Amino acid sequence: MVKKVHVIVGVALVGCLTTSGCAAGGVPAKDTPKITPSTGGALSGEIKIWSWDVAAKALRRMAPEFEKANPGVKVQVVDIGYDNAYDKITVGLKSNSGLPDVITLEDGRIPGYAENFPHGLVDLSGVAGKYRADFDQAKWAAATSGGKLFALPWDSAPVGLFYRRDLFKQAGVDAGSIITWDDAIKAGEKVKQATGKRLFVSDLTNPDMFTTLLQQLGQGYFKGGRVAVSSPAAVRALTLLKTLRDKDLLQNERGWDGMVTATKQGKAATQPTAAWWTGTLTGEMPELSGKFGVVPLPAFDADGVRTSANGGSALAITSQTRNQNTAWAFVEWLLARKDNQVSMMRTEALFPAYLPALTDPLFDQSQPYFGGQRVNRLFADEVRDIPPVELTGDDAQAREVLKTAVSGVLLDGDDPKTALDRAAARIASATGRPVGG
Amino acid sequence: MKRALVWLAAVAGAAVSVIPFYWMVVAATHDDGELFASPPPFLPGGELMSNLVALESTIHFSRVMATSLWTAVVYTALSALVSAMCGYGLAKYRFRGRGLLLGTVLATMMIPFQVLLVPLFQMMASVGWVDSYQAIIVPFLANSFGIFLMRQAFLDFPDELLESGRLDGAGDLRIFYGIVLPCVRPQLGALVIFTFMAQWNAFIWPLLMLNSEERFTVPVALNHLIGLSHVDYAGLMLGAFLATLPLTLVFLLFQRQFVSGLLGGALKG
């Protein structure tokens, strides 16, 4: 019995070693497969794309146009749902089977996949390099790992400060005069005094707001490969949150549902979040039409950056594809063309990461929901300013550790510097990276 | 006094288990906006039909229910048969390595499914079963829990009955179907309830295996209602509510079998 098992394993191993691909074994190939630029000629074949939510809707709407322009090509879009999409993608990468030609990935997920499955996604730098200057630099950096480009950026998520016009008016505060976070705190105190509403909604048990503020200061959890969650910028970001908390200006609500509910019920005067929040506002609370406005995110210093990023996706080509050329042609056609990006902004409100699209007159339309404000112009102008930060495959692990640190500071009153020093040490021992930077 | 306390505890227990279910009904009959109002609605609303129409148009709920139903029925029937036959073999036949085989069956119960996910996925991919119905039915037909349950049921079965069957000239299959199986109806009923529920609620495996929307089962399809910046709660609640109906039906149907089998045994004894 035992001997037999040895023989079987031996045969399987030899089989794996002699056939280079070894599809069933999932033995990683050494190098990231590089895309070979097309040698011309007509595209052909069928490609499959996994996506979710409005992104899937956009793909479904656009695919027939691509098919029309390229007879013989079929594009099949599968909506795999957002909530467990990454379970499917991870198992597909891990077992090196079952994945479609193209997958949708959120920016934060790309480095993890790039590092853990370097053979799983196709390096696009050879064919996409020429577009580098045309895309949101923060997103381009997020999709790049070790000099390779693992996905082409799709939609950007510039962060601004949404505010309630009625509450600000009631308190006699001009939202336009808010330049720095100090101004925001002062405005928040005034609004709270007049209306009883806190400044904004935040889930104090998760580090997302801290992460957004940290990116505003131009930094991620790691810097030059070293753990940087205790850097001066990180301490500054967390101290700001602590100040807001100490002045009782944060409306603590649990998770996404808490934030939507609290906003709908008008529990907070502002919300620092990304452009896609407009979709949630118009979709979930149409009755609040005319009550919201947007100003750029308050800066840390008077001349500081007035935006950050929160979300956004990209399209990646898997190495399991048998039709690289058609897959790339579709991705390029969809994302690196002004008309298509504008069309997806118009219909699905996917904010283009492709900079040339942002000059379209569409962005200058006034939005009745926002009291006639041209909010898309404001966000479009912010895309170029989003600070690129270093993302790594260890970010998910770091985030887990930061949960404790952030909630310790905001809920239990820990000192930001002490808490972040402790978090940095824990992340260092968990990831094997040195602290510093 | 003591009676009153027991009653109080019973009422509290009932409330705890009924309130979430009631809220599901309430949520299924309101639109999303009403759900987030404050205070939240306490009575069922009038949006049942519009939610139903929306659910049908977003995830083709009728098709999804049909898929879930037939795959769960086929799986339950086949897996109950396999469990009964294996359990019978392990309980009533003497052969070399029986103990080892039983040990192996029990050992597989202790392997967490997460460990099996990737190798099983690779197996399915190598035989070209990704995105097929057989992939969500076949791999779990030999259900170790079911085999063990049925083996225990057959253990108490008197050997004399088998022998008298054999003396009357019945073959092994005839004995199994004609004599043995009818006597373990209660246990079989319990197994059917259990396996149907497990397959009906199965999520992660169908999620991984099924890629085409026309093959989705209920849990996989409902999962699609949770979006990036929008969660369709009304649809989720309505879908979850409708999904409990077949389960209730199966439970009622086989629970009678279950109870009558138990009582029947009591009287005969």
UniProtKB/TrEMBL annotation, chain A:
Residues making up the signal peptide according to the UniProt record: 1-23
Pfam families referenced in this protein's UniProt entry, alphabetically: SBP_bac_1 (PF01547)
SUPFAM superfamilies: Periplasmic binding protein-like II
InterPro entries for the chain: Bact_solute-bd_prot1, SBP
TM stretches of this protein: none
Superkingdom: Bacteria
Keywords: Cell membrane, Lipoprotein, Membrane, Palmitate, Signal
PANTHER family: ARABINOSE-BINDING PROTEIN-RELATED, POLYGALACTURONAN_RHAMNOGALACTURONAN-BINDING PROTEIN YTCQ
Name of this protein: ABC transporter substrate-binding protein
TrEMBL record, chain B:
UniProt xrefs under InterPro entries: MetI-like, MetI-like_sf
GO molecular function: ATP binding
Membrane disposition: Multi-pass membrane protein
One GO cellular component, as annotated: plasma membrane
Chief localization: membrane
Transmembrane parts of this sequence: 69-88, 100-121, 133-154, 175-200, 233-254
This protein's UniProt keywords: ATP-binding, Cell membrane, Membrane, Nucleotide-binding, Transmembrane, Transmembrane helix, Transport
ABC transmembrane type-1 domain ranges (all copies): 65-254
GO biological process entries: transmembrane transport
Location of this chain's protein in the cell: Cell membrane
Similarity annotation: Belongs to the binding-protein-dependent transport system permease family.
Protein name: Sugar ABC transporter ATP-binding protein
Species in which this protein is naturally found: Streptosporangium carneum
